[in-house]
What does this fold into?
Amino acid sequence: MSAPDYPGTGLTMYLILGLVHKYCMATVVGGAKSVTNAMIACLKHHGGELRTGVTVEQFFGGGGRIDGVITDGGEEIRVRKAMVANLHPWDMGRMVPGIVKGIAARAAAVKLSEYGAINQQIALSERIQWIGGEAYDEAILVECMEPDWENFMRPFEAYRRNEFPYDVLQPLGGPQSNFDPSRAPDGMAALYLYCFAPYQTEDGWAVDKQRAGDALFDWFCKFTKNIDRLKTLKRLIECPEDHNRHSRIMRRGDIMGISMTADQLMGARPTPELSQYQIPGIDGLFLTGCTTYPGGLATLGGHASAMKIYQKLGINLKTGFTNY
Ligand SMILES: Cc1cc2nc3c(=O)[nH]c(=O)nc-3n(C[C@H](O)[C@H](O)[C@H](O)COP(=O)(O)OP(=O)(O)OC[C@H]3O[C@@H](n4cnc5c(N)ncnc54)[C@H](O)[C@@H]3O)c2cc1C
It folds into this structure.
């Protein structure tokens, strides 16, 4: 979620090569919601209760310990052993009683990514035939990039000005049904289309969502032999305003929660003093989610928070982690 000229982004190339070499690319059968559903089933299997549509407005406690939460409905829920929260650093000063002022101030200064995103889920009446030939059928994601540096950088510069670059677009397309046939009937296709986009501003998203979505789709079609608007059966477009509405973590539409730049990764995510999945001086509360390491990606990063919780509660890691 940064332009290639942003300092430290070269790290990504080494990271992606290593990851792909070791783990390969994969898609989730049935869509990413299958991961969430699997975790819900696991939680329920172990006697847990899941409640959605409830916002935690405030933590309560005292003497350096969090005792529970207060919901938007005014309900108090008390902690038994520990609380784990996907808490945006910007909210810590307001939500966590007793937090050291300097820690809250440094958390509030954490940076967002450079851009937001616009994505589309598209049902197509035909499978894609790429102008590049059948070899592209093996690609899980195809980035339709400009070959020369000046054009390549133009959209990134437009996003920085909070504009949508209709004259040069660089969508990324993923015909997911090529790898997961459950997503489309035979002969048809399910396409994921993605692109960077300017952020939501305080007055909403300054870009016309439908116009931007149409422009991206039309641009993408130029890289295929057979796809145009007549081949779309259904299309869902989501923009930074939608991402911000879907998740309190995705401020202004930052799909990574906070920026994934080198200065906010590893032992510096979200800040050096918060990187150990706890707030110094506050017991009973553990941090997790995309604003903690390994960060804003579908990395199943809760693993790291869980290890920390096991260690702090004196639970043997071998009882929960098969690798130890
Ligand atoms: C369009 C798009 C494309 C993406 N592409 C990729 C990709 O290709 N690869 C990749 O790895 N990642 C991708 N991501 C990023 C990835 O999806 C996120 O980084 C990841 O979902 C973050 O997980 P999370 O559990 O930390 O946060 P979320 O998935 O945002 O879940 C946090 C949940 O906690 C809730 N919450 C927060 N605060 C409160 C509160 N106070 N009270 C109650 N509930 C609260 C939120 O509402 C939300 O439901 C993409 C994201 C988007 C939107």
Notes: The pocket of flavin-adenine dinucleotide is lined by residues 55-56, 86, 117, 119, 243, 247-250, 255-256, 289-290, 296-298 (CB under 6 Å). The beta strands are 56-62, 65-71, 76-78, 83-85, 116-124, 142-143, 172-175, 189-197, 232-238, 285-287.
